[in-house]
Amino acid sequence: MGDLQEFLKLAKRYLQQEMVLGTREVYLPSQQGREKERGTRKEFAAQDPAEMDREERPGSTGGRMSKAEALQELAKEVEKCTRCPLHKTRTQAVLEDGSPEAEVVFVGEAPGREEDLQGIPFVGRAGKLLTKIIESIGFKREEVYITNILKSRPPNNRNPLASEIEACEPYLKRQLEVIQPKVICALGTFAAQTLLKTTTPISRLRGSVHYYEGIPLIPTYHPAALLRNPGWKRETWEDMKLLKKVYEEAR
Ligand code: URA
Ligand code: URA
Question: Which is the closest atom of ligand 1 to the Cα of 103?
Answer without folding.
Answer: 6
